[in-house]
Amino acid sequence: DVKVTQSSRYLVKRTGEKVFLECVQDMDHENMFWYRQDPGLGLRLIYFSYDVKMKEKGDIPEGYSVSREKKERFSLILESASTNQTSMYLCASSPPGPLIDEQFFGPGTRLTVL
Amino acid sequence: GQNIDQPTEMTATEGAIVQINCTYQTSGFNGLFWYQQHAGEAPTFLSYNVLDGLEEKGRFSSFLSRSKGYSYLLLKELQMKDSASYLCAVRDKAAGNKLTFGGGTRVLVKP
Predict the structure, then answer these.
(1) Quick one: pLDDT at residue B92?
(2) Per-residue exposure over B59-80, b if at least 16 CB sit within 10 Å of its own CB, e if not
(3) Which of A76, A101, B74, B105 makes a 20 to 30 Å CA pair with B10?
């Protein structure tokens, strides 16, 4: 079974702090994704990566950056956290190929920025 | 751009059938996914449609009409554990084959 883990289930940070959200998958998937989920807005793609050291902006990249130094690990970075980044953050991975196939999600990190 | 619409909330009785509709507008349709998400948990894959017609998986079925930009997820013989949010997601060639998700439909199953 694919396992996607995220470093924290709950996180509370202060405005202006630098925040790191870590995601690790154990199935050797090339593709990894970071989403945020807000009520009524569904899942919105922040960044994704097709391979190590490769990253692509999603639909809402502003205020975020990512790092993919190893295949199994994809990190989301909030350079200077703001209250409007309070949200549920979900990481996902999917097998390689030209199509984005079934995605496997981590349990999510609920981030509160005060 | 893409627009994916699904109802916000539905209520149904245990043992009944519920149909969750999803309409979409996309310039390069290349597949539609349904995910289930229980409160506080990760979304899990339910079904995938890329050709017109019905895909059946036990109590769950998903239908697609590409010409109408329409899909539905049918949940039969509802059980209490089916209370969850159901997410419709569309894959679009024009968007690099990424998935775009609808807002989700919260289904509440009552005894």
Answers:
(1) 86
(2) ebbbbbeeeebebbbebeebee
(3) A101
